[in-house]
UniProtKB/TrEMBL annotation:
Annotated InterPro entries: Elf1 (IPR007808), T_Elf1_sf (IPR038567)
Protein name, UniProt field: Transcription elongation factor 1 homolog
GO BP, sorted A to Z: transcription elongation by RNA polymerase II
SUPFAM superfamilies: Zinc beta-ribbon (SSF57783)
First and last residue of the signal peptide: none
A Pfam family per the record: Zn_ribbon_Elf1
Keywords carried by this UniProt record: Zinc
Entries under PANTHER family matching the protein: TRANSCRIPTION ELONGATION FACTOR 1 HOMOLOG
Gene3D superfamilies: 2.20.25.190
Length: 85
């Protein structure tokens, strides 16, 4: 008698998020836009209109640009532009 074969279950990894949570308004509305040949990426919140440009390195992903933007916004540096008129 042989033993039973086990069913192989493959787990697919989750892709990184493309829309992030804003630290100021709490809405899930922050997006990262980057042109393929540009050296900067624009990170902005669609809800409260806070945006900033962060330096883009070749090894960066959207999450890396968001984390730099998060640091800029939470420290309150003047680099972050508010969309209020």
């Amino acid at each position: 008698m042989g033993r039973r074969r086990r069913k192989i279950i493959r787990k697919t990894p989750k892709p990184p998020p493309s829309v992030f949570i804003c630290p100021l308004c709490g809405a899930q509305a922050v997006s990262v836009t980057h042109e393929p040949e540009a050296e900067v990426a624009t990170v902005s919140c669609a809800n409260c209109k806070v945006s900033a440009q962060v330096k883009w390195y070749p090894a960066y992903t959207n999450v890396d640009a968001y984390s730099e933007w998060y640091d800029i916004v939470t420290k309150g540096t003047p680099e972050a532009e508010t969309g209020e008129s």
